[in-house]
Amino acid sequence: AAVFHWPDPLLDTLDDQLYRPGFSPASTFALNCGPRDNSTIAAQWLRLAYHDMATHDSTTGTGGMDASIVFEFDRPQNIGVGMLESLVDFLVAPNEYVGMADVIAMGAINAVVGCGGPVIPFRGGRIDATEAGPATVPEPQQDLASHIASFKAQGFTETEMISLVACGHSLGGVRQADFPLIMTEDVPAGIQTFASTLGFDNTVVTEYLKGTTENVLVVGSNITTRSDFRIFSSDGNVTMQSLASPDNFNQVCADLIGRMIDTVPSTVTLTDPIEPIDFKVWNTLLFPQGGSLAFLATLRIIDTGVNRTVTMFWKERTGTFCPPAGCSVPSFQVTTDSASFLATLKGVTAFKLHSFNAAIDLTTSISQFWFEVNDNDGSAPFIVDNNGVNYTIDQDVVLFDPRRSSFTIGGLFMVVGVKDPSTSINVTALTTIDGTTTVPVTSSVIANFELDSSNPPADGYMFYTSPISGKSLSNTIHATVNGTAYSLWVPFLDAPGV
Ligand code: HEM
Prior knowledge:
Layout: H1 9-19, H2 26-29, E1 35-36, E2 39-40, H3 41-53, H4 81-89, H5 100-114, H6 144-154, H7 158-168, E3 173-175, E4 191-193, H8 203-210, H9 216-219, H10 227-232, H11 238-242, H12 246-261, E5 279-289, E6 292-302, E7 309-315, E8 327-330, E9 333-338, H13 341-345, E10 350-361, E11 368-374, E12 382-384, E13 391-392, E14 398-400, E15 406-408, E16 411-419, E17 425-433, E18 443-448, E19 450-451, E20 461-469, E21 472-481, E22 484-490
Antiparallel strand pairs: 1-2, 3-4, 5-6, 6-10, 7-8, 7-11, 9-10, 11-12, 11-13, 14-16, 15-16, 16-20, 17-18, 17-21, 19-20, 21-22
Helix pairs in contact: 3-4, 3-5, 7-12
The structure holds protoporphyrin IX containing FE (HEM).
Protoporphyrin IX containing FE (HEM) binds near residues 80, 138, 171 and 178.
Pfam families: peroxidase
Protein name: Peroxidase
InterPro entries: Ccp1-like, Haem_peroxidase, Haem_peroxidase_sf
C-alpha cells in the first residue's frame, strides 16, 4: 500500500475522499445500487469510466482515464443523460492536487461495491486532459473485428474483451430515448436492462447462457446492434461459461475493471493502492494569536475500540525553549468520525480524531512535531512520527490565519500573516473553483492579496487579505517575502480549536 509521509496533498485528499464520507458526498450516492433515470447511479458511473478510458491507445501510450470525457459529450458514442449527471455528482471533489480523472476512477470502484460487487484497489495520480481524445468508444453497430481492434488498442485481449463487456453490462441497460434504433420496441420505463437483477452479479452471463436473456445487445430485433451477442459468442462461449461461476466472475471483474481504471497515458505514474491510513495527521493550522503561535492539529486513528490517550510533542525552530524531550500538550478533544462503506469493506468502521491546540512560543516557534500514543492497557506507549522522519513544519513566514479571516455569504476574506516583511512582498493564492452543472470541470483563478487595513500588525506578522469566492474548493498561497518564495496549501479554513 502507498505510504503516507505528511504532508502529501494527493494521498491526503484521496484518502479522505475514499474513506470518509463527509469529504466525498458522491461516495455515498451509489450505495444500495440506488436508482436514477430508470437505471442506477452506479451503472451511469461505470459507463462514464469506461468511456473515459476508451480513448487509450496502447501503441502510442496516449489517452485513457484522463477525464477527457468532459470534452466528448457531444459525440453519439457518449449519448445519455447519465454522463453529465455523473460528472455533476463529482463536481465538488477535485482540488489542484486531485483531478477529475481520479474521481471518475473512484466512482467506478464505488459503483461496483455499491451494487454488491467486489472491492477493487484504488491508485491515485491521474492527470486531467485539457482537450478531447480520439473518438474510439466502441459502438453497437460495429462488427466484431472492429471491437476486437478497439479493445486491443485499449490494452485488452479478445478474452478480456468478452469478460470486461460482461462485467460492465452487469449493471444498467439500454435506454430507448438514447438508442431508438436498438430499442425498437416500447419497453416499460423506457429502458431494457442487460440482466433481470439490479446488482453487480453474473446474471447477465447466466441468462445469456440459458437463453433467457432480454439484453437487447444480444436478442434485440435490430441484428446489426447485437454487439454483446457477437462479443459473448466470439470464442464459442468458453469465456462466458467460465464466468458462470460467481466467484470467478467477481475475481475477473475486479481485475479487469481495476486494469480499466488504471489505464492511463504512459506519462502518468499512479501511486501504490491507497488503503485507509492508520495514523494520519490532518487539518493542521499555524497562526499568530495573542502573543504566541497557535498550532492546531488532529491525529486521525483507525478506531479499534481501544481507549487511547495521545500526547503531541514539538521542537523549537530556533533557540531553546522546550525541555530536551520536547514541549508537549495532551489532546483537548477526541471525537469519532464515520468511515465510508468502502472503508467498512476493508474492516474500518470508524475513525477517532484526537485534536490538539498548542500555544507555541513566538520567538522560538516550531520546527517539527510527533505524537505519543498510550493504549492504557499496561503496554508501553508508542511514538507516531511520520514513519521515522517526524512531521516537519517547513516555514512560519507565510501562514493562513483562520481567526482574522472572515466568512461572508459569497465566500470569505482570506487573511494571510506574513512574518517580518521588511522589503516588498507579493502574496497570491491559486484558488481552485468548482465547475458548474453545464461545464463540470474545475478551473483555477489567482487571487491577489493586499495589505489588510482592518488587521494591524501583531506578534511580528503583517496581514494581507483577498476576497475568495464561495466556489473555491481549495487554495494554495504563494508569497515572495524578502526575496524568498513560499507556498502553503490550505485545504481547510477551519479546525477544532479555532
Ligand atoms: C463493444 C463494447 C461496448 C458497447 C458496444 C457498449 C454499448 C452500450 C450501449 C449501447 C449502452 C446503452 C447506453 C444508454 O442507453 O444510455 C450501454 C450501457 C452500458 N454500458 Fe456498455 N458497451 C460496451 C462496453 C462496455 C464496457 C467495457 C463497460 C464497462 C466495463 C460498459 C458499461 C456499461 C454500463 C454500466 C451501461 C449501463 C448504463 C446505464 O444504465 O446508465 N459497456 N453500453
